[in-house]
Design brief:
By secondary structure, this protein is α/β, with parallel strands linked by helices. 40% of the residues lie in helices and 17% in strands. It folds into two domains: 31-62 and 328-435, Aspartate Aminotransferase, domain 1 (Alpha-Beta Complex); 64-326, Aspartate Aminotransferase, domain 2 (3-Layer(aba) Sandwich). Bound molecules: pyridoxal-5'-phosphate.
Length: 436
């Protein structure tokens, strides 16, 4: 063990307060460096990062062009206020808008994903003059006021203080709330349920329907054909804004620039963060439709942040989008998902009874683990804890949520790295099979 690993652990335990955790039992992994899909500690022990940290390091660790972009900007102008016009910020906004649907030309920058959702909700409320926001139980939108009460999962409950948030069940065929047996049925019934909730809440009071295009932490729930188009039609019928949260699904993760590119839907507001610059500098934002942007032509937008459009964040976005474009990283994510990761995980599902379902696209996959395939009873928390420890012990950083392992490497992952990871998952799934 290197002394710096010991010191990093000691300082962390003494002085750092961690997210979403009871602090006493924590034993965080020490990470000193990284490149591409790998990270390592000071002693040189290396790990395959199949979590992309928090599913955000889409371009991989230490991409040289992104590092250089930040360094150059730091040497030129390390910070500047949001009320100025800055060339790098403008270039970043132009690149994002160029990948958004037609008629979405303006970008509002925030510090991350949660405050981007806050501001998208604020824009939708002011644009429509309504206050309710409908989102799904199986979702995560961030940990600030409106974002955490839009969130559907357990993280909402201890934070519920804002009004006007209503939740529905979205489509999830493997554990259908609607007794569906086909994707078509699931889409139709989930849409009917959404329509009934909107009608019962009073469509005239609903400002926005806020959805993760592909709910991520909730289980990589790729929506069935027709669902998102149906939501769009319902929103149009009642003058409701459709906000698509692309924080996790966007910028290559789903094998598209925006995950909604693979579906027949155009949102009014797009929320982004994570993959836009792979988190090299904290940033997020909202892409506005021209109609929503126009609301604030002559009316003050009552929102803002000291670091909105921070030049280091902007430089990292410019460098990241350019590198992704030049190196075909989004196309690579799509191809490796379809040709290597998907088939590899399907083979594991065939072999291991503990696997209930595999689903996903691009570099965005979930392996749902069950104690019993027939009843689909989720694998216990104790065995999930064991799986996580076994994977880490074998040199793979896993992303686990509830009874699932999410297979979410950087978009630049190679076929060899996928093969290495699949062998590691295979070994750990064998251990889990033996426990059943
Ligand atoms: N929206 C989605 C879909 C997310 O996955 C996350 C974070 O995981 C957020 C919003 C919040 O982003 P941040 O942690 O940058 O505030």
């Amino acid at each position: 063990m290197d002394d710096r690993d010991t010191l990093a652990t000691e300082l962390d335990r003494e002085h750092v307060f961690h997210s979403w955790s009871a602090q006493a039992a924590l034993a965080p992994l020490v990470v000193a460096g990284g490149l591409g899909t790998r990270v390592w500690d000071h002693a040189g022990r290396s790990y395959l990062d199949f979590a992309s940290q928090l599913v955000n390091v889409n371009i991989g660790h230490q991409h040289p062009a992104v590092v250089a972009g930040i360094q150059e900007q730091a040497a030129t102008l390390a910070t500047i206020g949001p009320a100025t016009a800055n060339l790098t910020r403008g270039e970043a906004a132009r690149r994002i808008a160029a990948r958004a649907p037609e008629g979405m030309n303006k970008v509002f920058f925030t510090n991350g994903g949660a405050d981007a959702n806050e501001n998208a909700i604020r824009m939708a409320r002011l644009h429509t003059g309504r206050d309710k926001v409908v989102s799904t139980y199986r979702s995560y939108h961030g940990n600030t006021g409106a974002a955490i009460v839009s969130t559907g999962d357990w993280r909402r409950l201890p934070n519920e203080y804002a009004r006007g948030h209503v939740h529905v069940f979205g489509p999830y065929l493997y554990r259908s709330e609607f007794w569906s047996t086909t994707p078509e049925e699931e889409a139709e019934r989930a849409l009917r349920h959404l329509r009934r909730v909107v009608e019962c809440e009073g469509p005239q009071s609903v400002a926005a329907i806020l959805l993760e295009t592909i709910p991520g932490t909730a289980g990589v729930l790729v929506p069935p054909p027709g669902y998102l188009a149906g939501v769009r039609a319902l929103a149009d019928e009642h003058g409701i804004m459709l906000i698509l949260d692309e924080v996790m699904a966007g910028f290559g993760r789903a094998g598209e620039w925006f995950a909604f590119d693979a579906f027949d839907v155009t949102p009014d507001l797009v929320v982004f963060a994570k993959g836009v610059n792979s988190g090299y500098v904290p940033v997020g934002g909202v892409v506005l439709s021209d109609a929503v942007a126009k609301t604030f032509d002559d009316r003050v937008f009552p929102g803002g942040l000291t670091y909105s459009g921070h030049p280091l964040a902007a430089a990292s976005i410019v460098a990241s989008i350019d590198a992704m474009e030049d190196e075909g990283i989004v196309e690579h994510a799509k191809k490796i998902g379809a040709e290597v990761i998907g088939p590899g995980l399907d083979a594991l599902a065939d072999k291991h009874p503990v696997v209930g379902e595999v689903r996903g696209t691009g570099v965005f996959w979930a392996v749902e683990l069950v104690a019993d395939r027939a009843t689909r009873v989720p694998l216990s928390a104790a065995l999930m804890g064991r799986a996580k420890a076994e994977l880490l012990g074998r040199g793979l950083i896993p992303f686990t949520a509830d009874n699932r392992i999410h297979v979410v490497p950087p978009c630049v992952v190679t076929a060899d790295e996928v093969a290495e990871a699949l062998a590691t998952y295979d070994a750990v799934l064998t251990l889990l099979d033996e426990e059943l």
